[in-house]
Design brief:
Length: 333
DNA sequence: ACCTGTCAAGTCTGG
DNA sequence: CCAGACTTGACAGGT
């Protein structure tokens, strides 16, 4: 089984390369000339895209093919006060440059719209802003020229005191989405509310591929071992929605998230690095089912955590681990 | 250069 | 019913 590792949004080794620079609403409003304020937003967005490209070049130099973009590439993009603003015209070339680089280097990229995207919500206005947020993420991927193999990963959302009903509402509200939004979704188990078993069920009902977060599963489970769910999780990656647009990398490998508990006191928090042993145990247990998997590392030290994990994996070369390059390994079943 | 409070958005908990 | 926590990088305003 070939395992590729990636990291999220920002690098701790490339300096001054934030892809998430922003502007607060109050400073936007303090600029008297609205046109000038909007041009400033667009300049910040262009800078974020430029830094994203720098990170992608760093990734290529480090053999890293899996990366999650910052959702904050365009400041205030979905804010109500800026409904009349279409930033994509001004940023077309910047987005295209990022997308061209991704395609030229066969990278697997994604977004993770944050916790304001809640498709289980009973409130129509929250549903609408969630859909708007998904449209914004889709628009960015389209501006990059990337097909539906580039996904937006989300959680189910809140339980509102009745998890069963909320789960059903999630399934209904996802099913009612335009295909162009739905085919770009993946669904991840969370660490408090919808556990891996429940998320898998929602994936079966919606056709969405499941991103298993093995840290969330560790702190929120029904007593199952994570690899016991793997055959069913793998099936969610064989559906039409999972494979939509996957012309670049066909079939699209399944993806998981890995991180380690920050401390005993804060087991849900993310540690600086990623412990090799629990991850390796999981990977060995699924190696017989899957020939490729991508692992998104969610660690405080970002790419540094990836390099640290690769060092640990190099020490396991006598134990059925073969390091292939700077960011991928082969695990013998 | 460095520190502290704040930030657009949602949900849950505790008072 | 409302304030604060959650979580987190970066801004904004201060020293």
């Amino acid at each position: 089984m070939i395992v590729r590792f990636g990291y999220v949004a920002m690098s701790v080794t490339v300096q001054n390369a934030s892809p998430s620079k922003t502007m607060t609403l109050s400073s936007f409003n303090k600029i008297g000339d609205r046109e000038a304020a909007i041009r400033k937003l667009e300049r910040i967005a262009a800078e974020n895209l430029h830094n994203t490209l720098r990170l992608l070049r760093h990734n290529r130099a480090s053999d890293i093919q899996v990366y999650r973009f910052s959702s904050k590439l365009i400041p205030l993009a979905t804010h109500q006060d800026l409904r009349d603003w279409d930033p994509f015209q001004a940023l077309a070339a910047d987005f295209a440059e990022v997308g061209n680089y991704v395609r030229a280097n066969k990278m697997r990229v994604s977004f993770h719209p944050d916790h304001f995207t809640v498709l289980s919500t009973p409130r129509p206005e929250v549903l609408q802003s969630s859909i708007n947020d998904l449209k914004y993420h889709k628009a960015m991927l389209e501006a990059m020229g990337l097909g539906a193999e580039a996904k937006n990963n989300i959680h189910i959302g809140g339980a509102y005191g009745d998890k069963v009903t909320s789960g059903q509402r999630f399934v209904e509200q996802v099913s009612a989405l335009d295909l162009s939004l739905r085919e770009r979704l993946t669904l991840e188990n969370d660490d408090k509310t919808f556990n891996a078993v429940e998320t898998l069920e929602a994936c079966k009902l919606t056709g969405l591929p499941m991103v298993l977060d093995i840290h969330h599963q560790w702190v929120n489970n029904e007593g199952e071992k994570p690899w016991e769910l793997w055959p069913d999780i793998l099936d969610t990656w064989k559906g039409e929605l999972a494979q939509a647009g996957s012309s670049v990398d066909h079939p699209l490998p399944p993806k998981i998230h890995a991180s380690s508990p920050k401390s005993e006191k804060d087991p849900r928090g993310h540690a600086d690095g990623v412990l090799v042993e629990p991850l390796l145990t999981f990977l060995r247990n699924i190696a017989g089912y899957t020939d490729r998997i991508d692992v998104m590392l969610e660690a405080k030290l970002k790419d540094e955590a990836l390099f640290g994990l690769m060092n640990e994996l190099r020490l396991q070369e006598a134990n059925g681990v073969k390091v292939l390059d700077g960011a991928s390994v082969e695990i013998m079943p």
